[in-house]
Design goal:
Layout: E1 2-7, E2 18-19, E3 22-23, H1 24-41, E4 46-50, H2 59-69, E5 76-79, H3 86-93, E6 99-102, E7 105-110, H4 124-136, E8 141-146, H5 156-159, H6 166-173, E9 179-184, E10 191-195, E11 198-202, E12 209-210, E13 219-220, E14 225-231, E15 237-243
Parallel strand pairs: 1-4, 4-5, 7-8, 8-9, 9-11
Antiparallel strand pairs: 1-14, 2-3, 6-7, 10-11, 12-13, 14-15
Helix pairs in contact: 2-3
Length: 259
């Protein structure tokens, strides 16, 4: 079995101050504390940070993250989100890998960063890479991580800022039967969908949560968390979400109407 943990959307600032009513660095540290407890029971093979590591794109914000994750005795890879600066992140966190293989499983980190836009876009070069690597690894079960969602999240304001060329992306994905699951961040909430026989999973933020099925921007009172995956040799998998236990520790400012 292969165990992978996914953390996402930390929105760290250079000056550890308030993001939508909470201290996002403190909430990130709290989630990493929960990850450490998980690691006492079972050591993960990989931790994937699926974007929006920083909120202000500052070098200092990535230094904060580097210091916190240095406490983890586990490989960590990352994807850029729309709030990130990929070049600055790479300078401090190291270049992220595009793909990893663990026994019978193929892990792909798909880049949806679209410079200057809140929505995502998978570039032509990235689409070609995706198709080539899927074609070359049809004998392995596949898990794909991406920052932006490539299916509707059910909240109209979030659905406007997913992957802009999702139709083109999904057309490629539909060709390959070995894809078992696609996991994204960006939507700051838990969600589970099935699209073209592929499970689409949304992962909560380590900072604030967005209320599901909302027409406009709306925050939720759920606590920060992360997602885990257990991948089995036969292509089956299990996944779940862990949230910090103190339900009053990071309550956002519900008067905020956007960010």
């Amino acid at each position: 079995m292969v165990r992978i943990l996914q953390i996402s959307d930390s929105h760290i600032l250079a000056d550890p101050s308030i993001f939508l009513g909470i201290d996002s660095l403190a909430s990130f540290k709290a989630v990493i504390g929960a990850v450490k407890q998980d690691m006492l029971l079972q050591q993960p093979d990989l931790i994937v940070f699926s974007g929006d590591i920083s909120h202000d794109q500052s070098a200092v914000s990535y230094q904060h993250v580097k210091q916190v994750i240095a406490e983890l005795n586990c490989p960590v890879v990352w994807l850029p989100g729309n709030h990130d600066n990929p070049e600055t992140a790479a300078q401090i966190l190291g270049a992220s890998q595009k793909r990893l293989v663990f026994n019978d499983w193929h892990i792909i980190l798909l880049d949806s960063y679209y410079a200057g836009h809140v929505a995502g876009k998978v570039s032509r070069r990235e689409l070609e890479y995706l198709e080539q690597t899927l074609k070359a690894n049809q004998d392995k079960h596949t898990l794909i991580f991406i920052h932006h969602q490539c299916v509707a999240a059910g909240s109209s304001w979030l659905d406007k800022i997913g992957v802009e060329n999702s139709r083109e992306l999904n057309k490629i994905l539909a060709k390959f039967k070995q894809i078992k699951v696609i996991a994204c961040g960006h939507v700051h909430q838990v969600g589970e969908f099935n699209h073209n026989n592929v499970d689409m999973l949304f992962t909560p933020s380590t900072s604030v949560q967005f209320k599901p099925n909302s027409c406009g921007f709306q925050l939720d009172n759920l606590m920060p968390g992360y997602r885990w995956f257990d991948l089995y040799p036969d292509g089956n998998y299990q996944s779940g979400v862990v949230r910090i236990k103190d339900t009053q520790a990071f309550v956002p400012d519900f008067n905020v109407n956007g960010y």
